[in-house]
Amino acid sequence: MEEKITDETGKVVYTDPDSGKYYIDAQKGLLNNWEEGVIKTVVEDLENTTNILVVESQSGLLASVAGKKWILSSYFSNGSDAYDFLDDCVKDDLLIFFKGPGSGKFTLLDETNLCNSNGETSLAGVWKIDSNENALEIQTTNTLVSWKLVELDSVNLKVSFMKSGNNIEAGYIAVE
Q: What's the per-residue H, E or C state across 138-155?
């Protein structure tokens, strides 16, 4: 089905759509319907009308259809700045979050400086934000990690987690 943009009243019309299930992605700036979805469906005069709630959500700030990219900008271990002690191969990695209903796809892209000697340049998995919007969970083939969301807006992502007995707070900035 083709993508359409609403008119000035916020309405869009599809005529004679094929039978099946559809996911409607409604967005306005940083607002979207990824968590709330359809709120009301009405059938009047053989016309099916669907109203969609569009709200700001953590998922909409974190991800995009094309994949929203984040790069590490700060790293604290037990309250001390540890960014300069990280390997360059960690500092240039991109976290890419793709949107999807319920959860989305995740890619860690190892950029210019490779961290491993086997030549692997990416790690893929899925992500979701818990129902309280307090934690970001990332599942790869062998690992499930849960990061506490400290801050999330359109350009900043700050998470905290435990690693080897240390309290880590990592900051990321969105990149084009």
A: EEECCCEEEEEEEEECCC
